[in-house]
Specification:
12 strands; two-stranded antiparallel sheet; globular; Phosphorylase Kinase, domain 1; Transferase(Phosphotransferase), domain 1; nucleotide-binding; 10 helices; serine/threonine-protein kinase; 2 domains; disordered C terminus; alpha+beta; protein serine/threonine kinase activity
Length: about 375
């Protein structure tokens, strides 16, 4: 714990400009998180550590891994409990998946999944005392400048079972939509509860959908319930893939990721894999290059999807036919954009990619 720096409350008041609202980064399991400036470390988030003792802070400081946000120091003064962490410049996975206008590329999603899995595997299987994360979700996965994932917010983290016990009993905390069903029902928490939550996050990365979304049509509010029937079927799983990727994902990688998500989301906790096994499955996925956009099956499926979604498909209006897709699976109207700009960050026209004939506009 000697590597942890001890701050005074005054140090942190100065660093965060008196905790002013402009310094607020967000809210975590402990409370509000503020951005501060500490000379040797540059920018650093400062968050409350409600009720923490020096021993607990030292324990957090001993959890060191490339895929965990690093604890730099702390302040325990009177009733003040504050923790100082390294700053993660790209913010949370949640922000990149659901709030940014440009979609995260597939290979980056798989890189993030692998990093997050390594962080969980360390907590479960390598830490001196096993730790159950308990509230694993996209907002707790932070990204450095190179999109390396690091787990943050150990506010809810729980020591794993000791001796011959198989679970820890606790008041159910965590986030609805991510929590494993057996944990919600019984309060029994095991490392396999985290594996379920990882499966939900992986599904969010595959689909680009939130775990719970009341704005979706009926039957699609709960991501796991909606996706489960598609996960095991080779020909139906394409329907799960985030449409904003426009076919720019690895076919083999997406199949493996969907199978892995299904495995992690098993209703029986014992059937779920260990996080170290999850890491092994994910390792090759960021580098696979078999893009779906060049697959005839994917193009046909895209055409069916667009025809089904067309409000005019039953009114005698023309619906999009497979022949009107370019070889890389785009609708013709997205192929000619003024000034040579592209509608999507993924749309690169290669010399060998011939455009399909454009519709002539005559009905």
């Amino acid at each position: 714990a000697s590597r942890l720096r001890k701050f005074t409350f005054n140090d942190l008041k100065l660093a965060t400009r008196n905790f002013r609202p402009e310094s607020l980064l967000g809210e975590g399991g402990f409370g509000c998180v503020f951005k501060g400036w500490i000379e040797e470390n540059g920018t650093a988030p400062v968050k409350p550590g409600t009720g923490l003792t020096v021993a607990e802070v030292n324990y957090l400081g001993d959890l060191v891994h490339p895929n965990l946000v690093k604890l730099i120091g702390y302040c325990i003064e009177d009733d003040q409990r504050l923790l100082v962490y390294e700053f993660m410049p790209r913010g949370s996975l949640e922000n990149h998946l659901f709030r940014r206008s440009l979609p995260l590329p597939w290979s980056i999603r798989m890189k993030i999944a692998l990093g997050a899995a390594k962080g969980l595997a360390f907590l479960h299987e390598e830490a001196e005392r096993p730790v159950i994360y308990r509230d694993f979700k996209t907002s707790n996965i932070l990204l450095d400048a190179d999109y390396n994932a690091k787990l943050s917010d150990f506010g809810l983290a729980k020591d794993g079972p000791e001796g011959d016990k198989t679970h820890v009993s606790t008041r159910v905390m965590g986030t609805y939509g991510y929590a494993a069903p057996e944990y919600v029902m019984t309060g029994h928490l095991t490392s396999r509860s985290d594996v379920y939550s990882f499966g939900v996050v992986l599904l969010e990365m595959i689909t680009g959908r939130r775990s719970m979304d009341k704005n979706r049509p009926n039957g699609e509010h709960n991501l796991v319930e909606w996706a489960r029937p598609h996960l095991g079927e080779r020909r139906r799983f394409y329907r799960l893939i985030d449409p904003r990727l426009e076919g720019h994902f690895s076919i083999k990688g997406a199949q493996k990721a969907a199978q892995l998500a299904a495995h992690c989301l098993s209703r029986d906790p014992k059937a779920r894999p260990l996080m170290s096994e999850v890491v092994e499955v994910l390792k090759p996925l960021p580098n696979l290059k078999d893009m779906a956009s060049s697959s005839y099956y994917f193009q046909t499926m895209q055409a069916e999807r667009m025809a089904a979604a067309s409000p005019n498909s039953k009114n005698g209006m023309r619906t999009t036919q497979p022949g009107l897709l370019s070889r890389n699976g785009h609708q013709p109207r997205s192929l000619s954009i003024p000034n040579g700009s592209h509608a999507s960050p993924y749309h690169h026209q290669h010399p060998h990619h011939h455009q399909s004939p454009k519709p002539n506009g005559k009905h």
